[in-house]
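Input record, target 12 of the design panel.
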C-alpha cells in the first residue's frame, strides 16, 4: 500500500509597492518548483519537517506582472518572491482575481507600506513620533510649556475640595475626634 499524500496550499502572505508585489511562502520547504507567468504564480514544495505535507498553490494575479524579472530568496523558514508589476501605478485592491477570501492567504504587514507613504524615501522608518520633533529642535525643549521642573509653585493640595464627607469631618473635628470615633 502506498502512502497517501494530499496536496494542500501552503500559508502565503503578500505585500506590495507601486511597482512590485512580494509573495512569501510562510513554511520551510524542499523540492521546490515555482513558475511565474504574466497572470499566475504557481508554487509546489514539500514540508521540510513533515514530508507527508506536500504543498501546491496557484495564485491568479489581479493584474499582469513581469515574469522575466522575478527574484526569490530562501530565508530559512520561508521563501520570498519579489515580483515586478507589469505597470507601476496604483495599489491593487487585492492580490488575486478570486472573489472569495483564500483561507491560506494574508497580508504581510511587516513588508507592507501604504500607498501614501513616501516611495522615494530611503526606506528607513523614522518612527511614529517623527513629526513631533521638527528639524533643529530636540526632545528637551519640546515639552517646555508643561513647566514640569518649575519649583516656583509649591506642590500643595490645600485648594483641592474634599471628595468625601469623612474627610471634611476629620478636618473640622481635629485629631482628638478621630480617637473618639475609633474607641466608640
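The sequence produced for target 12 reads:
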Amino acid at each position: 500500500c502506498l502512502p497517501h499524500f494530499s496536496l494542500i496550499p501552503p500559508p502565503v502572505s503578500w505585500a506590495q509597492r507601486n511597482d512590485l508585489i512580494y509573495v512569501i511562502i510562510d513554511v520551510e520547504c524542499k523540492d521546490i518548483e515555482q513558475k511565474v507567468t504574466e497572470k499566475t504564480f504557481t508554487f509546489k514544495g514539500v514540508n521540510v519537517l513533515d514530508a507527508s505535507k506536500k504543498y501546491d498553490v496557484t495564485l491568479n494575479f489581479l493584474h499582469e506582472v513581469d515574469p522575466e524579472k522575478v527574484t526569490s530568496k530562501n530565508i530559512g523558514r520561508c521563501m520570498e518572491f519579489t515580483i515586478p508589476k507589469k505597470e507601476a501605478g496604483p495599489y491593487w485592491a487585492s492580490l488575486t482575481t478570486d472573489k472569495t477570501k483564500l483561507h491560506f492567504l494574508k497580508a504581510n504587514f511587516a513588508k507592507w507600506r501604504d500607498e501614501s507613504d513616501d516611495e522615494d524615501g530611503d526606506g528607513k522608518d523614522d518612527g511614529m513620533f517623527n513629526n513631533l520633533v521638527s528639524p533643529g529642535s530636540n526632545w528637551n525643549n519640546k515639552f517646555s510649556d508643561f513647566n514640569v521642573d518649575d519649583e516656583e509653585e509649591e506642590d500643595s493640595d490645600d485648594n483641592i475640595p474634599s471628595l468625601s464627607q469623612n474627610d471634611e469631618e476629620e478636618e473640622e473635628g481635629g485629631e482628638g475626634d478621630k480617637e473618639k470615633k475609633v474607641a466608640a
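The longest helix spans residues 165-183.
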